[in-house]
Amino acid sequence: MDHALSDVIGAIYDSVADDALWPQALGLIGSQVDGFLTTLAVFDTVTNSARLAQVACEDRKAVEVLMEHARDVPFYHLLHRMEIDQPGPLERMFALYGPDGEKVWREGRLYRHFHAQFGVLNSIDMAVLKRPARIGTINISVKYHEISREQFDVIALLGPHIRRSVTIRDLFEMERTKSELFRDIIDRLEHGVVIVSEGMDILHANPAAEFSLREQALVQASGGRLSARFPQAQAALTRAVSLGMADEVRLGASGIDIPLGVTSRPAVAHVLPLARRSLGDRIESRAAAAIFIAAAGTVVQTAIEAIAALFGLTPAEKRIAGFIADGLTRNEIAEAQGVTEGTVKSQLAAIFDKTGSGDQRSLQSLLKELTPPVRRPSVPAR
Q: Which of 12, 189, 223, 334 could be stapled to 341 by a disulfide with Cβ–Cβ 3.0 to 4.6 Å?
């Protein structure tokens, strides 16, 4: 286990139930890439308001100036075009904006009052939440121009952990007060939450989860153990709980947005590891994970996104799976991505291992089999 990254990931997960811990977590994230200032924000695209806004920086004046000019960013309308868990530099936002992107940026108030004043030369930006009415991003301002591949890679590695924490925190938002304990919060949530042991024994279920267990449409209690009705979802949940117990660093994208059934408006599950958490009321010592069941329609998924969630595919592996679903050959995928065929072969081997498929044909069959859980009804032509 990478103990440095484990400490960062632990801090990220500790922040789920206590917003006051976010600055510490963000400071640790920024320190991985020698960051100057790190922000985490979730925007409500319906009300144009911030649902979460956290910042970490040792220079308090810089924080004050940033907050004063935060609304002057000219790229808010582009955030939905950023890919989940894929960090990029400031230049990526310029390109998304268009030919005048850099000019508009340098003439803006945020650049003149924050970047120029405090010597911020670039930034690492990444989407960590994409919902029909939510966009979440993390931004790390840095005082150097060139960002290395290694620095992008470490933020990409942390991306799924930040996404899991922000996603579950978003479910908590209306129910959390500073004095409440973890169990008090989950018992009041309208979303189902089941606390399980490493062996999937049910240790606690909140009222919403108890209703779901009785209904048995998505999940059920079998011999005191949590069981998902959709076999692939059960395998994904079990894998995520075990990974969280063994090594939180390796948990990665496993256990986020797992589709729980065959429906055009999927209900999904998120797995939060608990073995290393300090949440006040720990339910009991055997608690391995909290499984959050989000209501149907909470997430808009494509088939590839659901498959990535079921098998814990990385962003790169998800792209390759999408090409396979479209019937492209290894050579065609290599050309489309600008990489060697050997690189694609290695990525495919990792996908075959995760999905249990042995070749491209069996992977294509699996992709077709798993498409129904997230197939959306067609929109009649006007």
A: 334
What is the pTM for the complete model shown?
Answer: 0.84
- 226 beta partners: 221
Closest CA to 365 of 376, 352, 378, 375: 352
CB atoms within 10 A of CB 65: 17
305/312 Cα distance (integer angstroms): 10
Q: Distance between CA 123 and CA 30 in Å, rounded? A: 11
The SS3 call for residue 192 is: strand
Contact criterion met (CB below 8 Å) for 128 and 87? no
What value, to the nearest 5°, has the Cα angle with vertex 307 and ends 238 and 159?
Answer: 80
In terms of Cβ atoms closer than 10 Å to its own Cβ (0-12, 13-18, 19+), residue 292 is buried
Question: How do 88-89 and 122-131 pair as beta strands?
Answer: antiparallel
Task: Tell me what pLDDT residue 173 has.
Answer: 66
Confidence class of residue 354 from pLDDT cuts 50, 70 and 90? confident
Spatial separation of the C-alpha atoms in residues 165 and 139, rounded to whole Å: 16
- What's the CA gap between 75 and 94, in Å, rounded? 9
Burial class (CB in 10 A: 0-12, 13-18, 19+), 99: exposed
Q: What is the rounded distance in angstroms from the CA atom of residue 193 to the CA atom of residue 281?
A: 15
Mean pLDDT of the chain: 85
> Residue holding tokens 């579950």?
168
Contact between 75 and 97 under an 8 Å Cβ cutoff? The reply is yes
HEC string for 88-125: EEHHHHHHHHCCCHHHHHHCCHHHHHHHHHHCCCEEEE
